[in-house]
Amino acid sequence: MLNSNQVSKAVRLALAIGAVSVTSVSTVAHAQDEGTTVEKVERIEVTGSRIKRTDMETAQPILLVTAEDIARSGLVSVGDILKEIATNGASLGLQTNNGNTNGVVRVDLRNCGANRTLVLVNGQRWVANLGGSVDISTIPMAAIKQIEVLKDGASSIYGTDAICGVVNILTDDEFEGVQVSAYNGEYSEGDGKRESYTVTIGTTSSKGSTLLSANYTKQGEVMGGDREISSVPIFGLPARVSASGGRASPTTPNGQFRGTKDGVAGSYTLKDGAAGCLPNQDCTSLADFKLYDANTDGYNFAPVNYLIQPGETRSLYVLGNYELLDNVKLRVDGLYNNRSSAAQLAAQPLGGLAISADNVYNPFGTDIVGASFRPIVAPRVYGADNTTWRFGASLMGDFELASRTFDWDVGYVYSDNSLTQLKTGFFNSTRMATALGPSFIDAAGVARCGTAAAPITTNNCTPFNIFGGENGVTPEMLAYVGVEPRNLEFSKMTNYSANIGTELFELPAGAVAAVVGTEIRRESGFTNPDPLTVAGQVLGDNAATPTEGGFDVKEYYAEVLIPLLSDMPMAEMLELSASTRYSEYSNFGTTNNPSFKVSYRPIKELLVRASYGEGFRAPSIQELYQGQNDSRPAATDPCSSNSVPYLQNADVRSRCAAAGVPAGFVQKDPQFRAKVGGNPDVQPEEAKTKVFGLVYSPHFVENLGISVDWYNIELDNAIGARSAGYIANACYVTGIQSYCDLISRDFTGTLNGNSGEISNVLSLNQNFVGGLEREGVDINVDYRFNTEFGAFRVNWDSAIMLYEGDVGQPNNGDLNADGDISSGNQVGIYAAGASGGGARNKLKSNLSLSWSMDAWTASITAQYLSSMTEDCRGIITAATGLGQPELRNLCSHPDARRTLYAFKPGTTEVVATPDQAYATNELSSVVYFDVQMGWTAPWDTQFTVGIRNLFDKEPPLAFSAFANTYDPTYRLPGRFGYVSLTHKF
């Protein structure tokens, strides 16, 4: 039997090092007098297991984020909190603007992908979107008591998605009184203001309790132009370089028009500052136009993008507990969350435009095809309104049978999420074609569509002027061609569950405990794009077809805990636990996933733990049933004459010629047009997870806890799609005809005035034999001590990534399981062009020191992100094209060289070419410091002030980052100061 001091120490250490977490009831110890033995230690349920127990240190590593930790962070959203834990990878959030037009916030443990992290609320699944990932901004912050992160696979306990970890968010169910709190903060630049206000009301009685908590949070925007690092497409280069290696857009407010001036044919653009063609006037002069120069005439789109999306969140959480009988309890809870947000991008780039020779604004006097223009008076805005409802009801209790106590519960959960996206700054392609067609000036001096003999008057048709720069577009023009597409998305989940557990029989080392249970779940949803979007009538926007589908799953699981040894020399405790889960899906069939765990304590101070588990991820509704949607991935055409070294090979030249690509063709558009979509034949992903760790709490240093855990995750049969660039290379370089069949080209020049451009690549979902592998080590050190100067706590939590890449850990240049050339270990190598961030830090670490004394508290926290290396060849190309060799030094290693691997054209033989120029840039390591101080007044009001990024640390330059030179994994530049107060009545 444990004494009270041992229980107290066990509880402190468990909470301190994150070895376990409580998901149902707290540990309670009752003692008659100080120093007497414990009469009762209530059993608890730990995350990752259904068996209630008294020992909180288990075979699975868990990080616990307490209410104290949340308050100390100075953050007011669950997404921001999870973004900064050491085990989280790059994921979408409100710092991702381009590529996150729905304003979602996700968590991505181990950099495995957000849909491979399971999110629970009170141990129950939260509704996922159609892609299978959870938008954690739909979980009300006001309801959160603590967050538990299981750093292990758990499919045998929770089913699908629990591949790389589980996030379990616990809501507050014990509160008495009334509490109000307010929070206000902003950046030192005076932007990005955050406000949060919460009211919580709770009451308890001998038979039950009720709780109501309401919250309002508002996030202000930060523009790209408000920070130097994000004010240009590539920091350090001239802002308007659209040539290869630059990133400014070739689609500009001055336009591009293929025509002839003074006998010289080419692509012309309006001169900077020139008036060009004026509204309601015939335009015949070409004096204001010049040949387009890709090094000076591109468009700097960066300043008008958001760095932080603005948004407002309103949430309400209600909870009721009632004791129906002495051993039966009813629990009912409900959650409501509404978030409105907006993403803003530069005005729509309009390409492939055809202008009639008889258009009043056409100064070239001939028909023009493939013109482009950007109407910057109307930026693209994606307004998102996201509403989530959840209702849960459960009965729980216990009963005696055959001298055993059985714990049981039955539950029901319904949750749905609806998203409405309203887009502005878009144009109707049919009306635009009419507005660029023939037109004339009427007797009143107003431009009219059609001809004087056959005017077009429907819908107030107004000729559109793309030859007058940003001032050439009038409100009347925009009113005629403008559209506001409205897209809908809805997903819902219904879940029924039942569990029962007991201690089966006694062994010399303790009781064998078991639990069995079942879940029946239904998930369904749809997307309903605007009819104009479905019809492809929204100019320049990605066409999309509706998605609709769903599936049912019946699951049965069992878990057993077997104590093997106890209270023996070098065997204080040895226990084995095993679990298995059988799942039957309506769409693909059945799967069974077992797990085995061992906990061994040779001495009281040391716990050795190990686990092996098999997991799976069922294909999502989107992966199965998504309609074919347009996308615009960045890719290089192997048939472009500047595609080195491919066109140096005769076989590649032959295949390109056979496809009709003209000699001397140069790719103009750096983005392919591709169609992506679902595949109802994809099968589940399969995973194997291994964990081995130590938890050490030395008796000679009270309240010190150390945990070290190694893990390895292998995921096979991964669901994904070949990239458009891969398909093009497989066709023209490797010579695989099946990939050539997926490619279409435009030989009319209507796409962008450049005959031969790739006009479509079909890229649908499939299973890959290989997948991904992750290996790493997590370390946590926690130490608490009291002095005459107050109570202190030091916590150091670190995640070391050892391997990230293909299954089997092949070397760079080896073939992976799918027959592709492996890139080897990607740890420390920045992923170029990832919209959610491309960070693959080898080490992420958080160190905090907190202090409390009487009414005062203070803390200082350091967050460390290790350095990375990125491909910097684009800068070299840009420097060469600009004739400014000094710009090469923007790369930290401009003269780096490496061995490059490629298939020998026409074969699957890998050819190594050593000592090739491969400029790299180092993203230096970063340390952010945060400080906070608090004081509780005698009248129960707590005041808190803090500064995040105390030393105004800038993020490292990432030249291959998406959209600008700032990766959203890092913090926004600038200090962020905040104040908050909480008063309890």
Automatic annotation (TrEMBL):
Signal sequence range: 1-31
Keyword field contains Signal: yes
Domain called TonB-dependent receptor plug: residue spans: 56-166
Membrane-topology annotation of the record: Multi-pass membrane protein
Entry keyword Ion transport: no
Primary localization: membrane
PROSITE patterns in the cross-refs: TONB_DEPENDENT_REC_3
Highest taxon in the source lineage: Bacteria
Location in the cell: Cell outer membrane
Pfam families named among the record's database cross-references: Plug, TonB_dep_Rec_b-barrel
Domain TonB-dependent receptor-like beta-barrel: 372-950
Keywords: Cell outer membrane, Membrane, Receptor, Signal, TonB box, Transmembrane, Transmembrane beta strand, Transport
Protein name stated in the entry: TonB-dependent receptor
Organism annotation: Rheinheimera maricola
